Amino acid sequence: MKRWLVAIAVILITVQSLAQDKDKDKDKDKAKDQGGRFLYADFEQLQDGRPVSTRGGMVSLNGFEAVQSVSYTNSDKPWPHLPMIVPAGKNNTQCVAFNFSIPAGNAWAGVTLEIHGMPEKDGKQVAEDMSGYNYIVVQVIAQGTETLRAEVNSKDNGVKVKDGEGYGANFPLKPGFNTYRLPLKQFTQPKWDTVIRVDLKEVLKHLTSVNFVVQKIPSVGQVVIDNVAFEK
């Protein structure tokens, strides 16, 4: 366990020392489509000490498992389970991170960072149309997993997709803090016979959240994420 704590500390120190784009506009208008890029979440804003997306949507953690319970940052606290905030340093902007522990003995399990684009209204998730974009872009550094899964989701807006049956794509991670440009056309639903099929365009037209998921069994580590954007 001490070895993992040292590795996790090294990641956070590394993030503090990496050069990032420091020219971010502090205005909420920065999320608007500018030259074919829509900044979905850069985690610069805090509301009541909690990280939010560029438009003020909730950022939270959740876990799932078949048998043996997963654990993650703040999973022992009351809901919502919040990621850690990595403060801006001399050469980096503010970002979020989470620790995870996924035990053996599970046929399936994972820990998810869920980013809502908009704040809820009347207890329901608010949708926005992202169907005009072709890529999701994200910056990631991780320890303890070599792969992440990116997902796009729609809830409360007429798109009938069950939990665990939405569109997503796995992508391999390289050493260090890197930018990944993920083609949305490669996002697919699970191939199970029981999955209710929906059109990806319909999900993107009514998008409510973007997820990043660790699914390695077993695993212990940390993920740091920044600058989630849609691009044409």
Helix content: under 10%
Query: Main β-sheet: number of strands, strand sense, barrel status?
Result: 7 strands, antiparallel
State the total count of DSSP E strands. 14
Structural class: mainly beta
- Model regions low in confidence, pLDDT < 50 over at least 5 residues: 19-28
Helix count, DSSP H or I runs of 4 or more residues: 2
Radius of gyration, Cα only, in angstroms?
17 Å
Cα distance spanning the termini: 43 Å
Mean pLDDT: 89
N-to-C series of helices and strands: HEEEEEEEEEEEEHEE
The proportion of residues in beta strands is: 35-45%
Q: Which of globular, elongated, flat, extended, rod-shaped describes the shape? A: globular
Structure description:
It is a single chain. This protein has helices spanning 2-17, 200-205; strands spanning 37-41, 46-47, 50-51, 59-65, 71-72, 84-86, 95-102, 109-116, 135-143, 147-153, 167-172, 178-183, 209-214, 219-231. By secondary structure, the chain is mainly beta. Strands 1, 5, 6, 7, 9, 12 and 14 form a 7-stranded antiparallel β-sheet that branches. Strands 4-8-13-10-11 form a 5-stranded antiparallel β-sheet. It has a two-stranded antiparallel ribbon with strand order 2-3. Strand 6 and strand 7 (95-102) form a beta hairpin. The longest helix has 16 residues, at 2-17. The N and C termini lie far apart (43 Å). 36% of the residues are buried. Residues 19-28 have low confidence and may be disordered.
Question: Which features characterize this protein?
Answer:
232 residues, mainly beta, 7-stranded antiparallel beta sheet, 5-stranded antiparallel beta sheet, 2 helices, 14 strands
